[in-house]
Amino acid sequence: MRFTRIHLALVAASMGHGMVMADTGDSDVGTIGVQGKATAGGGYMVQEESIKGRSTITKEALDKQTATGNAIDKLKYTPGLNISSEDATGLSGFRFTMRGLNSDQVGMSVDGMPINDSGNYALYSNLLGDPENIDQIFVTQGSSEADGPHIGSSGGNIGIVTIRPTKETGAFVKQTIGSNATRKTFARLNTGEVNGLSNWLSASHTEGQMWRGSGAVRADKVEWNSFFDAGNGNTANLILKYHEQDNNSYSQLTKSQFQQNGRKFDPYPATPTVGSNGKLNSYYALAQNPFQTFTGVLNTQFKLADNLALSVIPYYYWGNGSGVSSSSYALNRGSNAGGVFDLGNLPTAAQYNADGSSTTGVYYRPSRTQTWRPGITTKLNWDLGDHSLQFGYWYERARQSQTQPFIALKSNGKPTDTWPDGNAVVDANGNTVQGRDRFTVTPAQKVWAQDTWYINPDWTLVAGLAYMNVKRDGTNNGSLTEQPEKRHQTYNKPLPNAGLKYQLDERDQLFYSLSRNMRIPQNYVLYDKGVDSINSKPETSWNHELGWRFTGDDMTVAATLFYMQFKDRQVSSKDINGDYADINAGSVNNSGLELEWSGLLPQHFNYYTSYTYTKAEQQDDLTVYNAGKAILLPTSGKQFANVPKNMLAANIGYDDGRFYGTFGGKYTSKIYGDLTNDEAISGRTVFNAGAGIYLPVDKKVVKDATLRLNVDNLFDKKYLDGVYTTKTNAASYSGFRDGDPAYIVGLERTVTVSLEANF
Predict the structure, then answer these.
(1) pTM of the predicted model, to two decimals?
(2) CB neighbours (10 Å) of residue 94?
(3) Does any domain span residue 391?
């Protein structure tokens, strides 16, 4: 583990008093311990009261899943979600769709702090924290909450809620081993409560070999949590997290590569390969994904009067990392196409091709991103008899530096440093040579007002209006291919929402909700030289939901019909440099059905099942350009890429207080890799199993202990999972073919065993 200033910041922060907000209404922060009564469905479902579709998974279910999976991995049975993960450690990449939306179109928060990338809205595993510290995860499938601090969410949101410190002094330790030499050690120490202040500190180390391809994954995490109860409804919660990883990156496969070579095939070479010029051109050791993140959030609640409460939630996000493919990059005097640098100090092209070394003149070139992101959310809740009013304001100012320095290679082909903080190539004037050098500032603000009207004991009406304003200021500092330039753009729209809930009786509940969401174009539009890229319009959506919930003594059922109308729909892809880019797919209508059903069975058994039907229909044919010629692609009426029409999940559980067991599976229908539906990957059913023993302990030193076993992909199904790179068309139209979609490879059978204990 590298100890940096961030580690010191964690220690320093722990010396002060943190102050948590436990919001009792719909909130992007979520609730802690008051969200609902868990049913007998093994923790996969709770009794919801939201006036919109919502699913919550509790710690009970989280703990019984694979010990090393991250928060997103543990949502695999939740309706509306189709999740694709690159490995079982939870440390590598993942993608998902929710109601037909890609993961970068879904807002995600941790304790009220947004964690989507401020530039391209991607989600990274390093920001999810240790799953051992998660109390619950809630999923709002259709639309974000009014207080959601998201600029890239045209659909719903996912929120992680961290466990609070206990009032008792104690410790929790957990050791996990598993397939592919996976090892995870986790420990959490609770200080207990002193004068209203309680704290915990956790640390973990995870490492393992990649299950396909050469390389390893490794990560270290440190988390601090302070909860202070000042009495009279005044509370505060300080949560600090530091994560550091240095992983080798997984490759993705085309359908033909998978069919011809199998799932273990890795296009990233295990040994350095050289091109015709005698220079190294590809090596797995160049596919690195180092990353550091530090986040801090302070959730505060102040009771100003019996009917008046104020919450203030400041947060800060810092990230430093990079991702890169296995290719090396040439750099010599002839590389200065943009004329920004003086490369006279570098070898000539002739020397580059004739010096007899395979590593001189070629470099490791990471796509580095640094982010500095302070923000604050303020909410005032005012209860006036039958009306509960909320007024809120959110502000954030994200700064993001995106560069591509050149790092020298060792004689064995590996980079001299995977962390691009030094050792970069400089030109004759001492300037760091960059393949990309962009700096984006994104001030964002949102103001809203919302009224919850309790008309009578049976009827509740919610109506609100938000206004969001986002500005992007982009500075291109110049690179090998780009000239210095400044560009900016501003986006704003009103975002209304309304909802109605009817309590038919003690057990049955109906609701309808309507909301408008907006997704700001990614920051690349400021720099893309494509036709009118800077004037790209925000993606907007109208989200309709009609739902029914039933809660009985031993059964809970929820059903939601949804209809989502999108304008200027965007789909994420990647350009030739490996940077994220959006394809404007025009109008898209998503409609479907979500079902959840959980309950008790005799003899200590419980069950949970979910079903999702999604029709994501493109409304327009798509125009693309090939050599300046417009080509109309037949996309109208086609299913949107990476969206399965049908998903069915089920889990049966057993828990008698001595032993527990789970057996579950999920069916996912075929998905298309392109917008013209020319290429699809087949549907699959994947099963998982788990078991555990609650060990007998003396209760004096060891309060409780559990031995757990999990097997994911029990029958070792071989399959391609979600789409990684979407194409417009995989077949040729008028001589134009966008290329082959790339897919995440479905995980092999994976076994983990863990032993945990509370002291």
Answers:
(1) 0.91
(2) 22
(3) yes
